[in-house]
Amino acid sequence: MGMYLNSRTPFESYKSTKAGAYFVDKTSLLGELIPAFGTEDRYYCITRPRRFGKSVMANMAGAFLGKGIEAGELFDGLAISKTESYTAHRNTHDVFFIDFSRMPRDCDNYSLYIKRIQDGINRDLSEAYPSVGIDMDGAVWDNFSKIFLHTDDKFIFIIDEWDAIFHKSFITSSDQEKYLDFLKNLLKGQVYVEFAYMTGVLPIAKYSSGSELNMFLEYDIATSERFSEYFGFLDSEVDMLYHIYQQKTNRPKVTREDLRFWYNGYHTAGGRQVYNPRSIVCALTNNQLRNYWTSSGPYDEIFYYIKDNVDEIRDDFALMISGEHVAAKMQEYAATAKELNTKGQIYSAMVIYGLLTYEDGEVFIPNKELMEQFNQLLLSNERLGYVYRLARESERMLRATLNQDTETMAEILEFVHDTESPILSYNSETELSAAVNLVYLSARDKYRVEREDKAGKGYVDFVFYPERRNADAMILELKIDSTPDEAIRQIKEKKYALCFQGKIGEEPRYTGRILAIGISYDKKSKKHSCKIEVL
């Protein structure tokens, strides 16, 4: 076992993952990769946002395939053990496992970074093949070729975080090209490569025809159907984990619906919805709903993606914060661009980094965990103009609503027309909903806000489910060119308040008041009217 060759690192890492209470068996992925070994299509690159299980899958592959440690104890009983390839491939390959996010000490330049990797590979080859005569200062691909000519031995390369170097401040454009040339020389068309598997956030950067890694089959979350089920947790898997949570947790505080609302909603090209796995595991382990995933990376930098295009993006953000979808075309390599100049580039990059999700030509905010980050942006950045101003009024709007102060509510809604933004033209309930959603932004700290929620005999515009059992619940219905009385009449006739009742025989889910809120807008007078009744 060496630093990279048949390293015990992936075995120990995957062993720790499997030992966790909330382990999910994704070993069927191996069954899809193995048939590509030794074929022309033996190069795979799978990209996903951070914390979507990429490293877990890389560790799994390294632990299963590498000769370093017999891994039967890990894989017996898992899905891969039920396949014909299990015995033939378990710990029978020479695997180079390289995590490109690892840095040498005091690293501040590319030469030092890549020297550590090349020296480590050459050292491992020299120890494994003492009779071949490895050139310790030579190119690693030359040494691999020499070994193949002497022994016919081939190698599997598992490269985790292939794109980590692109996030380092000391890396220049020239360094990036050198790095891509390094990968090309190491892997492309080399007879000693039995299989190559790379993971990362970014799709492979296509800087020039001379440095393209075009031998790789690339699979991302937005445009590639294959492998959708292996990165992120499916509903059935979260059901299983939630059952474990209920069995092992004293006084469980997290509901199954909470998990859906907070962490689900990422759409894959395969038509599946997946949960952020790290957040699910953390929430169940800690028995607490929190923003786990976004706090693990630079997600306070959402504004980075829109700072040069605020005017163009602002209206879209107002819609997305309201739960609406916005049309967008994915541009696969936008995330590698030095400048993001168009909405297509901006939204493509945000999908790649997991800040938005994409389905059927539209982008949107997938869940509460991400919505919180957007809320913070809206409440803290004046450059967002009217969106910022409306969001800042949201605390006053919630307070006025709970106090049944309809005059103040109408006053705040009139504030909408201090701007000429087209989103606030109110040609449909979509625009009205967007504005109403903004002025209730702060309510999300105390409520689970659902739009177009099934309730009673129909679908209500907004339902505010309080986090505290004794707090006031709210039902909000919007009307254009009508009256708030008509909105409240609809709330009563369609029995929307049934959404707050528990199952028969159970105690009521909420003990506070239920407020029926009617808001209307008159297109001619451009006036809002509000009414509140306690049901």
Q: Helical residue percent?
A: 25-40%
Span between termini = 71 Å
Spans of 5+ residues with little confidence (pLDDT < 50)? none
Count of spatially separate domains: 3
For the sheet with most strands, the description reads: 5 strands, parallel
Using the coordinates above, name the CATH class of the largest domain: Alpha Beta
The beta-strand count equals: 15
| SS summary, helix count | 20
CATH topology of the largest domain: Rossmann fold
The SS-based structural class is alpha/beta
Rg calculated over all Cα atoms: 27 Å
Q: What portion of the residues fall into strands of 2 or more residues?
A: 15-25%
Q: Could you tell me the mean pLDDT? A: 87
CATH architecture of the largest domain: 3-Layer(aba) Sandwich
Order of strands, main sheet, comes to 2-3-4-1-5
Described by the principal axes of the CA atoms, the overall outline is elongated
